[in-house]
Write a structure and sequence with these properties.
heterodimer; A: alpha/beta; Rossmann fold; six-stranded mixed β-sheet; 9 helices; 10 strands; globular; B: mainly alpha; two-stranded antiparallel ribbon
Chain lengths: 249, 316
């Protein structure tokens, strides 16, 4: 196995007496989709917030390509190559679709001394943003439309396009299928699969069919701890997982 | 593009109209209009925070006041000093004050930001009100900065001085307006719009939001400093009230009255607010009551402020 793109060692986050994430160790290789599943309250969202810098770990370490990054603020992690999408769509609703992706490109490409150039002279930012939109399946959408006018599924795609436009090494996707209809979900699956070609992907998802279809490796969390870790086949056949989680649903 | 061009022509026309005012107005009205322009500068500077960035501050007048007091400190008693000295100094002081206050206040958000800026503003007020720095709670008079430049002594009679100050105010306001408009159309301006729309997402994209906010806070403080300087230059007196939260709140009312989502809104609001105050004085002794009622009615009837009136007609 190549050097881990993302490695967490004994990562923990406590809220008062509650151990939301309690000693979680995960390895994620480049080009791999690593799914994290578990019942509500298992600590999946807390875990992803620790990795994106939205929360600071109580203990343990987070390594990105061997570099310790635990506790860094979200904007620094984004610059180091971690892009994330949120469970609740997190986009610039009042801005146009084009501006949404252009801002994502600008974050990566524009250095401080270029900040005072007139925005209309930097059409290149939007051009790059369009590539990300096309990849997320929104190639035909009107760039001037306010993001709030898109359908829910399209807003999800826009969020993924913004994340891609950052050109991250690691994608953190927090329930990218939440709230999508069956048709919209179907469109999302090949997209997820294609993302693994050039990113490491950590995927938190409730839809088991999707997880078993797209994931390379799976970590099952219960009560903040890792219950099981392994390939799709190993997890499918793991008795403890069946008892604790799969059996319930 | 044509809509933007039309807007530019309308604005230039507006400024040209203001430029004609001293040709027809008496001293009293030139001075009054001059005050309105200073108020417009203050409202415009505050609107960078409120309208563009989406952060409401109640301490903005502190920078206005600090700049005005800087003029008082610099002008030697009995002597005079050119505004070419006092203006940069006032801007510098206002910038430094806003850097310190902004660096601390911007660690907080929403309601807490409002309260922390209020607290800082009142600290500056009491600094001038109760310590030797201020020269007394009732304020102090001093010689107004002059128009002399580079060794050229320019002597003006009372009328000419008022008119010259008016034109300087108008020039500074126009520079501030077109400067801010250009700034908001740069990539920096895009970031500002992004922060207003969704600060959390900006952070997740890799923007150090705090730094951008601080840059805006300092710029907005520096511009308030220009306004404060011009107030002192026009009146030749400073008092602690300049820095008090009433003054900040008044600037917020002007923004609300004019419309906070457009850049010319605060200017219209400041002019209207000054006008309303004068008319209320003519009609009654209860100036604040009339002002309050008119602003209440305006805000209820015009959710986008005065600047929104034209838009509505355009849609229908």
């Amino acid at each position: 196995m190549a050097e881990a793109l993302l490695r967490t060692v004994d990562l923990a986050r406590h809220f008062g007496g509650l151990k939301a994430v309690d000693g979680v160790s995960i390895d994620l290789a480049p080009g791999e989709i690593h799914a994290v599943i578990g019942p509500n309250g298992a600590g999946k969202s807390t875990l992803i917030n620790l990795l994106s810098g939205d929360l600071v770990p109580s203990s343990g370490s987070v390594l990105l390509a061997g570099q310790e990054i635990g506790g860094s603020p979200a904007w620094k992690l984004a610059r180091l190559g971690i892009g994330r999408s949120y469970q609740r769509v997190n986009i610039f609703k009042e801005l146009g679709v084009g501006e949404n992706v252009a801002l994502a490109v600008q974050a990566r490409m524009v250095v401080p001394r270029e900040l005072f150039a007139p925005a209309h002279r930097r059409g290149d930012l939007l051009e790059r943003g369009k590539e990300a939109l096309a990849r997320a399946g929104l190639g035909a959408v009107d760039l001037r439309r306010p993001a709030s006018a898109l359908a829910h599924g399209e807003q999800r795609q826009l969020e993924i396009a913004m994340t891609l436009a950052m050109e991250p090494r690691l994608l953190l996707l927090d329930e990218p299928l939440a709230g999508l209809g069956p048709e919209e979900s179907e469109r999302m699956v090949p997209l997820l699969r294609s993302l693994a070609a050039d990113h490491g992907v950590l995927l938190v998802e409730h839809d088991m069919d999707v997880v078993f279809t797209v994931a390379d490796r799976i970590t099952v969390m219960v009560n903040g701890r890792v219950l099981a870790q392994g390939s799709v086949e190993q997890i499918r056949s793991n008795q403890a997982v069946r008892d604790a989680y799969l059996g319930d649903s | 593009m044509t809509a933007a061009r039309n807007e530019t022509w309308a604005l230039l026309g507006g400024f040209a109209l203001l430029a004609l005012l001293p040709l027809v107005a008496t001293n009293f009205y030139v001075t009054l209009a001059s005050s309105a322009l200073v108020a417009a500068m203050l409202a415009l500077s505050l609107n960078l925070m409120v309208g563009s960035l989406g952060l409401v501050s109640l301490g903005h007048a502190a920078f206005f006041g600090a700049a005005a007091y800087t003029v008082y400190y610099l002008v030697p008693s009995g002597g005079s000093l050119s505004f070419l000295v006092t203006l940069p100094a006032a801007i510098l002081v206002a910038s430094l004050a806003s850097l310190v206050i902004g660096a601390i206040s911007l660690r907080t958000k929403g309601f807490f930001f409002l309260m922390v800026t209020l607290a800082f503003g009142q600290m500056v007020f009491f600094l001038f009100h109760d310590t030797k720095l201020g020269g007394g709670g009732d304020g102090v008079f001093f010689t107004r900065p002059g128009f002399s430049a580079f060794g050229w002594e320019i002597r003006l009679d009372r009328r000419a001085r008022g008119v010259a100050t008016y034109y300087l105010n108008l020039l500074l306001l126009a520079a501030m307006f077109f400067g801010l408009r250009a700034l908001l159309q740069t990539l920096f301006g895009r970031v500002v719009a992004g922060i207003r729309a969704n600060e959390h997402r900006m952070r997740a994209l890799g923007y150090d939001v705090y730094r951008y906010k601080l840059a805006c806070f300092v710029l907005s403080g520096a511009l308030a400093g220009i306004a404060g300087h011009m107030w002192a230059m026009q009146k030749g007196v400073v008092n602690p009230e300049l820095a008090s939260w009433h003054n900040s709140a008044e600037a917020l009312l002007m923004i609300l009255l004019g419309g906070l989502r457009s850049l010319h809104g605060p200017i219209l609001g400041a002019i209207a607010y000054t006008g309303i105050g004068e008319i209320a004085d003519l009609l009654t002794e209860r100036r604040k009551l009339v002002e309050g009622l008119i602003i209440l009615a305006a805000v209820l009837l015009l959710p986008q402020g005065i600047a929104g009136i034209r838009l509505k007609r355009g849609d229908g």
